Amino acid sequence: MLGGQPIIILRENVERNRGLEAQRSNIAAAKAIASAVRTTLGPRGMDKMLVSGTGDVTITNDGATILTDIAVQHPGAKMVIEVARAQDEEVGDGTTTAVVLVGALMEQAEHLIVKKIHPTLIAQGYRMGMVKALEILDELSVTIGSHDRDNLLKIADTAMTGKSIESVKSKLDGIAVDAVMTIAMEKDGRIVADEDNILIKKQTGEAMDDAELVRGVVLDKTRLSEDMPRKVKNARVALIATPMEIKKTQVKAKIRISRSDQISAFSNQERETLKKYADAVIASGANVLICQKGIADAVGYYLAKGGVFAVEDVPEKDMKFAALALNAEIVNKPEDLTEKSLGNAELVEQPDDDEIIKISGCDNPKAVTILLRGSTEYLLDELERAVVDGTRVVMDAMEDGKILAGGGSVETELLMKLRDYAATVGGRVQLAIEAYATAFEVIPQTLAENSGFNPLDKLVDLKNAHTKGKKYAGLNVYNGKIIDMLKEGVVEPHRSKRQSIQSSAEAAILLIRVDDMMITEPMRGGMGAPPA
Ligand SMILES: Nc1ncnc2c1ncn2[C@@H]1O[C@H](COP(=O)(O)OP(=O)(O)OP(=O)(O)O)[C@@H](O)[C@H]1O
Ligand SMILES: [Mg+2]
Question: How far is the C-alpha of 217 from the C-alpha of 194, rounded, in Å?
């Protein structure tokens, strides 16, 4: 105040929440987001049905999908959703866990604020807790070899449980593992696997059980002409980037040439040029041609005569993928084709009644395709999300070579060890570290609750087992028993837990430290209202 006049520094339409009110509003928002997804956690979690403004329906159990699809207004809620997005990007799994943890951390912070513990101190305790938690996590992790197929299968299996695909899980986990093991490469002594080198294709109308791993590529195309073979065994595939036609040809592009006399519709010179294109392909030894641009009918005619299977107008993305799968080189002109530029595939075919071309059995492919089948789009989409989660966790585990026991075992070990650690710190910050430790209870408790067991009883049972030194003890969600999760094969990549611990703590710390929210656009429902 200057001379009794208030100084106004904010524009008129700025909504402002301060101090406790700002903190409460962020806490309520984080808790609301967490409670929106917590019922989906674990193998026995429920699904959500999302309906978009245009009426599109998605049925899913996938945390990241749920959270990116629901529209939220609240800035605090948006930050929590960002945690899920980052988890999805970095790890591909564990999004629900990360968000449920933020909710629990904010709930614990609320109790501390009521006890008049300053937010800065809470933030400090949470940060110390997080650093310690990551250390404990390292100690708990089990090292696996990058080609340990058994353990990789278990990792895929754990990530794919509970995504309404139970009946085909044992098939899909094999597909996910084999896909990743095929495309993984060694670079500077490390294993790297690029998710872009696994393509997922979906086909409606067939049984889920017909899913398959194609060591090659599937194109949404049909062959150029019926006169070409439907199937080519021991294929030698040529990839060409430019059009195989003559510009400004006097002949209409769409004349189908099936008899030799029709070919005379072209001028001699044109005919020569077009025939040369086809001859160059045949001379290279190729019996399959994939062209990024158009192929003139006359060229198609000569190719068919030479027994070549050809496809035109293949998108650049698919061309590049095919080159990786086939270990082939994309050339500019047919004359540039050499023995080396061709790729080998056991089979190239356009299956009966199918509008696709399948190139399979490639030699040592650097890219593969997972072909998913199912009765409805909804099912296929959820199947795809499960397979993406499955392949991503296998990549994480292969790259890092470190796994952890699931079923709430890691969280139980963490919460107990963190409490011991808090006791060694002392002072008021000890309370914040204890609160941080308590937040981890939410994972085993939610797993129990979602499976129909009493969350408090199961937590006590788990703590008892861990006190006795059973550090891999977790909850069997099907019968409620406390069992060794490593032996049971319920394992997850170390990266998933590390990322969820780190990002949940960082988001909570940021939110707790906010004591002033200034929002320039008036919001629907106001800031105090938690998101729907
Ligand atoms: N067979 C099992 N028995 C006990 N717990 C399991 C089993 N399979 C998975 N889990 C546990 O379920 C939890 C993962 O559940 P879920 O896959 O629903 O969530 P998320 O991985 O956090 O998120 P999202 O998969 O949606 O990204 C982990 O704590 C995992 O250990
Ligand atoms: Mg999961």
Answer: 16
pTM tops 0.90: no
Q: What confidence tens digit (pLDDT) does each residue in 163-172 have?
A: 667 778 888 9
Ligand 1 closest atom vs CA 389: 25
Which residues line ligand 1 at a C-beta cut-off of 6 Å?
40-43, 45, 62-64, 93-97, 158, 161-162, 389, 406-407, 443, 447, 474-475, 477, 490, 492
Q: How far is the CA of 95 from the centre of ligand 2 (A)?
A: 7
- C-alpha distances out from residue 248 to 124, 245, 252, 277, 295, Å: 73, 9, 9, 17, 14
Cβ proximity of 515 and 22 under 8 Å: yes
Is 62 catalytic? The answer is yes
Which numbered ligand comes closest to the C-alpha of 492? Answer: 1
Average pLDDT, stretch 307-313?
97
- In terms of C-beta density within 10 A (0-12 exposed, 13-18 middle, 19 or more buried), how is residue 9 classed? exposed
pLDDT of residue 266: 65
Q: Which amino acid is at 224?
A: L
Q: Which of 96, 161, 369, 391 is catalytic?
A: 96
Please give the Cα distance from 448 to 399 (Å, whole number): 31
Among residues 77, 3, 21, 20, the alpha carbon closest in space to that of 530 is found at 77
Task: List residues bridging with 218 in a β-sheet.
Answer: 358
Closest CA to 110 of 41, 34, 14, 37: 34
Is the separation of the CB atoms in 311 and 287 below 8 Å?
no
Going by their DSSP bridges, the two strands 288-291 and 309-311 should be labelled as parallel
Domains in the chain: ranges and CATH: 15-143+405-514 (1.10.560.10), 149-215+371-399 (3.30.260.10), 217-363 (3.50.7.10)
**What is the per-residue DSSP string for 312-368?**
----HHHHHHHHHHHT--EESSGGG--TTT-EEEEEEE--TT-S-EEEEEESS-S-E
User: Which atom belonging to ligand 1 lies closest to the Cα atom of 98?
Assistant: 22
Running DSSP on this structure, what letter comes out for residue 2?
A: B
Nearest by Cα to 326 from 372, 266, 368, 280: 368
pLDDT digits (tens, 9 = 90+) for 450-470: 999 999 999 999 999 999 999
Please state, in angstroms and rounded to a whole number, the distance separating the CA atoms of residues 157 and 177.
Answer: 10
Q: How far is the CA of 43 from the centre of ligand 1 (A)?
A: 6
Q: Which among 40, 60, 62, 273 is annotated as catalytic?
A: 62
